[in-house]
Design brief:
Elements: E1 2-3, E2 10-11, H1 30-87
């Protein structure tokens, strides 16, 4: 048993709510509660950074592929122009 961090009355250390005041996780101290939130925020930032970095990597790969396609289109257009100059329009 321990004291509720809100009302100070006795509660079980495994209680999810204080039966007296309804406080969530009454056995967890304010400091521990803050540390849990801090850890959750740090994990969220790390996940966000990982997703963002993977998105940027994919974007670079798509940009490279689009440049390659554009280059190929230009080569085909040049080949058509060369053919038309040599043999005339079809």
């Amino acid at each position: 048993m321990t004291k509720c961090r809100e009302c100070g009355k006795e509660v079980s250390t495994g209680a999810n709510k204080c039966p007296h005041c309804g406080c969530s996780y009454p056995a967890v101290s304010q400091k521990a509660h803050g540390v849990i939130w801090l850890i959750a925020i740090v994990i969220a930032v790390i996940v966000f950074a990982w997703v963002f970095s993977n998105t940027r990597s994919c974007t670079r790969e798509v940009d490279t592929a689009l440049r390659d396609v554009d280059r190929s289109i230009q080569e085909v257009e040049q080949a058509i122009d060369d053919w038309e100059q040599e043999y005339g329009s079809p």
